[in-house]
Write a structure and sequence with these properties.
It is built from 12 helices and 18 strands. With 370 residues, the chain is an alpha/beta fold. Helix 5 crosses helix 6.
Amino acid sequence: MKTKAAVLWNVGDPWSVEEVDLDPPKAGEVLIRVVAAGLCHSDDHLTTGDMPSVLPMVAGHEGAGIVEEVGPNVTRVRPGDHVVVMFMPSCGHCRWCATGRTNLCDLGGSLMMGVGVDGTSRLHARGKDVTTMCFLGTFSQYAVLHEASVIKIDDDLPMDAAALVACGVPTGFGSAVHTAGVRPGEAVVVVGAGGVGMNAIQGARIAGAELIIAVDPVEFKRDQAKVFGATHTSPSMAQATELVRELTRGVMADAAILTVGVAHGDQIAPLLGLVSKGGRAVVTAVAPAVETDVTLSLFDLTIFQKELRGTLFGASNGQADIPRLLSLYRSGQLKLDELITTRYTLDEINTGYDDMRAGRNIRGVILHGH
């Protein structure tokens, strides 16, 4: 079948919106009509080359839609089901799934290459195979993906809000709740108040943090951070260090979470400087794959028993956490509608990413026309 999609042909190119060919689903796969797709910074990492990929590619790994067709042996969903795609699928039986670390699933590692489990693409354009980010590709009106990458949701949930729980919401929320292990009464610093950082702020608030300091150079984002639960804001880590020292009477924060658009090694030392003895520093942001140098004090790490933790998908279990997050949304505790700054058509995808880079959006969402 034909579908309209945004294709990245070369690093540094803008997204090319064009008609592409889509194969039917194979065994264990489903065809979905994508209704809404989130504009996540991770997709932009493809255009800059910070995240290695096999091009050409249709990106988009946040999305919600409706199942149109299922391939042989599919048992998790059926045609007509409303679903959210899952950035990191879980097979349920590999070593990582069996030990509760579904975000590290071997199937997810395979699908990250942008092709099906059989090693082939489902999209084709200009005589070439086209990969899809995480074997999802929600920057297309229709997508074929593995059944382990979809979660059924209630039909009455708004698709634009639901799309965000595919990646940005659980990644940020889980960074605070799972990886940082925020507890009631703690002080937490979130560095970077974008689509992931706002959800780290929400996670810290729901976990019971007393002090939540949002750090971002953009005034608009600092103002918005207060909507999601920040008690204080600062434009830089240097200024936040003094603010945290004052607020905690010199103890410093229990946890600091790095959720900037692009991580760099020189950000780690100041991140660790924000936390107390025994404090936890979490790196959620993606760094360029070619960067290998990190600056930090190993002396402080040992003598003050600080911890530096990486996290993927906020250490979330998608099958359990995505329904839980949607329940929190229903109860009014988790803000999803407020995350969406601007809605775009697929033809406006490059404008959406320009707005993201300029700091004008918390999260942009594409609404596919059908």
